[in-house]
Design a protein that fits this description.
The protein is mainly beta. Helix content is about 0%, strand content about 50%. Strand 7 and strand 8 form a beta hairpin.
Length: about 120
């Protein structure tokens, strides 16, 4: 059973930073492509970033490139999303998810394991 728990959300002003953490439990972390997704009010869930099993390949949606960084620590079953220079449009509920490898080209629907999410609110 894959279990994912996100933490680190909160409220910040524009230009601020947050670090989201996703902790896994009771499964072999190094088998899965991991990703961060977000869903704002009235919007579809959006893939924000993904990272390959070995951590060497990553993907970012254009709107966060240069501001967000995804990383993983397979030994400790953790994936993080460092978010800098936050903007009001980054406001959303952020979810961690896992999918069988590979990561490349995987749509949202291909991620079968999801956490409960953590809220990020950025004020102007």
């Amino acid at each position: 059973q894959v279990q994912l728990v996100e933490s680190g959300g909160g409220s910040v002003q524009a230009g601020g930073s947050l670090r989201l953490t996703c902790a896994g439990s009771r499964y072999t972390y190094n088998r899965y492509c991991m990703g961060w997704f977000r869903q704002g009010p009235g919007k579809e869930r959006e893939k924000v970033a993904t990272i390959s099993v070995d951590g060497l390949s990553s993907y970012y949606v254009d709107s966060v490139k240069g501001r967000f960084t995804i990383s993983r620590d397979n030994g400790n079953d953790m994936v993080t999303l460092q978010m800098n220079s936050l903007k009001p449009e980054d406001t959303a509920r952020y979810y961690c998810a896992a999918a069988m490898t590979p990561c490349y080209g995987k749509p949202v629907a291909a991620f079968g394991y999801w956490g409960q999410g953590t809220q990020v609110t950025v004020s102007s």
